[in-house]
Design brief:
Blueprint (H helix, E strand, L loop, with lengths): L1 H20 L5 H24 L3 H34 L6 H29 L5 H23 L22
């Protein structure tokens, strides 16, 4: 719990420094600070729910940080695809639209491959139960993150000029 508090406190200090440094924050800076806060929260959730002993933590956290750095690079690619989609949503047709699907699917495969390699590398560190628990934690956090950004993406128009957003009811 103390670890979680320290991470969140650090993230707030980062955010407040960025906001006070300029009147109108740069969207890239805001995005990066938001990403850092999200990563800090994610790490705190993993720490709180995994219950690592000192020896496990010594081996786990460097592997975890390396994995999340690789995922960050993939998220930047995903963000680029989303930006391209959102900038062209009303005119998205033909080859542009058709090329986005395989690129998005290839990216998902790359992310899943990274996850598979990362998880497999942890097997010698953990008991079978803790190994499976970590997999569950990562999967749930990934699903929550993916839901967060996908719920805001409108459907591609069926006809030129149409924009449809599907509202997904939040679970109670």
């Amino acid at each position: 719990m103390q670890f979680k508090f320290l991470i969140l406190l650090g993230a707030i200090v980062l955010l407040s420094g960025s906001v006070h440094a300029q009147h109108k924050p740069d969207p890239n800076t805001v995005f990066e600070v938001t990403r850092q806060i999200r990563e800090a929260k994610r790490k705190a959730i993993v720490a709180e729910n995994l219950g690592l002993n000192e020896m496990e933590a010594e081996k786990f956290w460097p592997a975890y940080d390396d994995y999340r750095a690789k995922i960050k690079k993939k998220e930047k690619v995903r963000l680029g695809l989303l930006k391209q989609f959102s900038e062209n949503i009303t005119d998205l047709q033909g080859e542009d639209a058709a090329s986005m699907v395989p690129r998005a699917l290839d990216l998902e495969i790359e992310i899943q491959q990274l996850k598979k390699e990362h998880i497999a590398g942890l097997k010698p560190i953990f008991s079978v139960t803790k190994f499976f628990r970590y997999y569950q934690i990562e999967t749930k956090l990934d699903a929550r993150f993916k839901f967060g950004w996908t719920k805001r993406i409108p459907l591609a128009p069926a006809n030129k000029g149409d924009v449809v957003v599907i509202e997904v009811p939040q679970e109670q």
